[in-house]
Amino acid sequence: MSNRRINFHHEYQTTLMYGRYTKELGEFAKEEALKLEKQRRKEERLRNEELHKYRGKCASKLASAFGFIWKHTFAKLGEDWVFLALLGLIMAFLSFIMDHGISMCNKGRIWLYRDLTIHPFAQYMAWVALPVCLILFSAGFVHIVAPQSIGSGIPEMKTILRGVSLKEYLTFRTLVAKVIGLTATLGSGLPLGKEGPFVHIASIAATLLSKLVTSFQGIYENESRNTEMLAAACAVGVASCFGAPIGGVLFSIEVTTVYFAVRNYWRGFFTAVCGATVFRLLAVWFQKEDTVKAFFQTNFTMDFPFDPQELVVYSLMGVVCGLGGAGYVWSHRQYVLFMRRNKKMNSFLQKNRFLYPGIVALLASTVSFPLGLGQYMAGDLNTHDQVAGLFSNFTWTKGYLSVEESDILRHWTTKNTDVFVSLCGFMLYTWFFSIVCSTIPVPSGSFIPVFKIGAAFGRVVGELIHLSFPKGVRHGKLNTPIIPGGYATVGAAAMAGAVTHTISVSVIVFEMTGQITHIIPIMIAVLIANAIAALLQPSLYDSIILIKKLPYLPDLLPSSSGMYNIYVEDFMVREVKFIWHNMSYHELKSVLKENRRLRVFPLVENPDTMILLGSIQRIELIKVIERHVGRERRLQVV
Amino acid sequence: MSNRRINFHHEYQTTLMYGRYTKELGEFAKEEALKLEKQRRKEERLRNEELHKYRGKCASKLASAFGFIWKHTFAKLGEDWVFLALLGLIMAFLSFIMDHGISMCNKGRIWLYRDLTIHPFAQYMAWVALPVCLILFSAGFVHIVAPQSIGSGIPEMKTILRGVSLKEYLTFRTLVAKVIGLTATLGSGLPLGKEGPFVHIASIAATLLSKLVTSFQGIYENESRNTEMLAAACAVGVASCFGAPIGGVLFSIEVTTVYFAVRNYWRGFFTAVCGATVFRLLAVWFQKEDTVKAFFQTNFTMDFPFDPQELVVYSLMGVVCGLGGAGYVWSHRQYVLFMRRNKKMNSFLQKNRFLYPGIVALLASTVSFPLGLGQYMAGDLNTHDQVAGLFSNFTWTKGYLSVEESDILRHWTTKNTDVFVSLCGFMLYTWFFSIVCSTIPVPSGSFIPVFKIGAAFGRVVGELIHLSFPKGVRHGKLNTPIIPGGYATVGAAAMAGAVTHTISVSVIVFEMTGQITHIIPIMIAVLIANAIAALLQPSLYDSIILIKKLPYLPDLLPSSSGMYNIYVEDFMVREVKFIWHNMSYHELKSVLKENRRLRVFPLVENPDTMILLGSIQRIELIKVIERHVGRERRLQVV
């Protein structure tokens, strides 16, 4: 396996930001085919060696004992169930522990900045030091342990699930690098997410678990079975990340597959439910939460969530979010391409591996410093509190505020400016720095930043509508005030849907917020945003696949039904050039001369019957001619 | 087309209850292949005639005008979107109008029984007359117009979506019969549902709309495109039935397809959202509902929906519902088979087509007569009020009741008995009569009855738990009372999931109730119920497919990963019998004698090299032998 990784490493160029493959898919496939036989033998040998290693000394007894127990308990019970439950359990624990680590880092940073000192400069140093250190640690750790763990992981999973084998992406080293690197990255408080990496982590966990089980079971590893497991793993990744089992399953279907085998439907659900349940139960047991609740629980009224007239506004939000999502993907790609093109900056930054991460982390945390610009963008809140605030069920622009409400709003206003300035500042900061930070070579996702941008946009719209219609928009008997928090959820879902080109994000939002009251607005906005974004740009994952030049097999069929109006006759060559039996040398020469670009000529019996006898390559034909009427032949005859 | 239907009619035997096909799949396929050429020509002719008919007189101008408008507006805009939106719109209107008709019938019955008279016998006659009349009308109407509209329609849609063409199921006549028949059937108040028929109606609407559009568009009808449209139609059927767009899409994926093309994902969502939105908006506009709300809106607390310890009870409920679901499918099949076997009863019932429907309707409405047995089973409530009551957010067994609460409970208690008697009576009545009534030859579904059984079971469990732990089950600081309504939703989802073998029913429940607070319990219970039911019995739809002998292509691959341990060597024939070049007549004769059951023999070069040259049929071989060494040949030689 390690041999495989090193081999591959030559083709994988770790550039400043994203790595990229230097070879195109075609070349890659050819070489791969040549190597295949050699590798297979080597791998088998390595595998045997690995097994021998495991079975050396006392480990041998342990393994056989485990194998015996497995065989006589779980294997009989139906190993699938047990395997999937185990996967869900592992992911829930991983997610919980990582969340704990991240929140510890975040708390530490707030503590450093708020309680340690009162001098502004010292506060600034405290505010900046931790993120920079964490990012540098993460970048260094990831570089040493497994550079494949850089970035989101969803583009790679898409590639793997379409049948291209990128085995170095699913090793134990990558798992360790991704888990620790991601914890450090998110602990730094930069506007980055954990969804993509979590999908990757779950896939690695599934692969490793699968190997462990099969090595005890003695059944040969089957490729289809592996794909089934990976698809389930993608689902549990999302599920244990947000506590959203259904959304996770749908997201994994949408993002990773082309044809989904419905017989595997229950797999994803089962493991996702296991993951989400344990993830939420752990919160109850260890964090003394009341009970199993949603991740970003909202409390909108169910009696009158929105007026039908508001659907127009929601649809317009869908349009704007669609354009915004496409703009985000576009600006992300432009930034990466700009940085790659800019040779001076590149040569400067490439002097040291830690230069770029350090500068970006320094910049991002400087801008978000709460005593400086950070006050205009709720810079002192962590991601969870930001989203919880944006989704909160009270109108930010109303006159009277309760204590809890003003406690939330304290972060979103300053003495001189109102909430709109802070919301716009927050959007701009998150937009720009989520793009810049996502190019740092550390594990990170883009889902949550985009989600936050959308939530802030929705909150802006909601508050504006509230200001325009303080008593609600209805003309009827009752006038219920509008709910800006609902607009925030719609905006978040639409924006995230537009960037990822997924509809399932709406389900994730329902599960995250624990409310489904806004189902119609969210679905409408997400569908509109999706359609517009899909017209303008590829999804962020596809864009990264293009940037990284991953060996990705493109879609054969477009999703529009317009394709059914295209027939073979629309693009077939009508006047086929051909040669025929008993054609004269003169005719042959003219055919060859007139069609220099054709590489192969079909051979027919004669131009009337047009019965195909075979085909001949241009080169072969010329060789034959050369042999028969070429210079040497003529000389011979002479 | 009509010719096609008549042809088919010969093979389709309209028995007492379900129709069934008298031919097996193999025969059917052979004959089908023979007829294909003939039919194609006829259909083309008929089609042309139809077109001529349309284009006769003034209709011709109208059609071309419509075609022109379509071509220059919607077709440019992307006809898919418009087509799907139109489909959603049509289904929403249909669903709304049908709901209106059904509720009018129900109200009329209550009015007849309650306000017209006070004499018990007259009340009984009033109570019984309307259902019997409606069922008889429905049975007669359906029989005359289109017998194919009998039953659920989901089994047929499964068959059609797997590639078997049952065109008579998708005609305009079937649509009319199904819509009117279903309205009459459900108006009768028998324990039947509308989900299955709605899927069927949506599919017919999609097919007809598709034909209309293609006839104007001039593009040739494409089979793949049709399948795409049908899958979307199934989704909109469920969506416009319950106002559950996401659940509808998932349900259609689970129930109808084997491999789901993800590129069609948006289709289902778009049309389902259109359908659900318009369906709910119509309720706002015409029924003066406050705003867009869920179908069975619940109001459970979001602060503490359930204690983690209650998850054990939910899991046990999943087990019971799994067994119950399998039992339901089993007893349904047993009843149908029993009725088919019982020749005396059959010969009596077959004297008149209306005998069986009439007797069943009379029996069911007699048992549910509110002054008789009906008081023990909430017989005077319609389906919507029954479910709303079962899902209501208050404890039925608590001491003090508010006015609204006692108004709900009035139907579920009598002077002498408590709620448990009524709930059990309700369950038994629904179980038995939903099975019996589903065999009446009228359009009807089984989803809602099963859903109601589950809801009642959940309510029983919830009330029992409440009686055992009046102050809630938690040991911690706070003791929040448990919510029996939550148990009812869990039971409903688990039972419906077990009978239909779907997981998406959980999503449908979220969307129906407008709450997602119980996501974890519902998902766990549904998964467990599904697993158990799948072990014991096929799904209700598959069971009906078996009963009806529909030409259904079975699944190739089981869903368990155990299949990956089965190799070709496990079942391949190892000692292949063969004949070889230059074998002697004696050897040939012995091979032929020893293997009388083999129909084909492989021919190899010689037994050492075993190079396959071809194969020969036994009959051909014997013929050849006959010709060379047979009697005539010998006579010739002599």
From TrEMBL, chains A, B:
GO terms for cellular component: chloride channel complex; plasma membrane. Pfam families: Voltage_CLC (PF00654). Gene3D superfamilies: CBS-domain, Clc chloride channel. GO terms for molecular function: voltage-gated chloride channel activity. SUPFAM superfamilies: CBS-domain pair, Clc chloride channel. It is a multi-pass membrane protein. Keywords: CBS domain, Chloride, Chloride channel, Ion channel, Ion transport, Membrane, Repeat, Transmembrane, Transmembrane helix, Transport, Voltage-gated channel. Its main location: membrane. It is found in: Membrane. The chain crosses the membrane at residues 81-103, 124-150, 170-190, 197-217, 229-253, 265-286, 311-333, 354-373, 419-442, 487-510, 516-536. This is Chloride channel protein. It comes from Graphocephala atropunctata. The lineage of its organism: Eukaryota, Metazoa, Ecdysozoa, Arthropoda, Hexapoda.
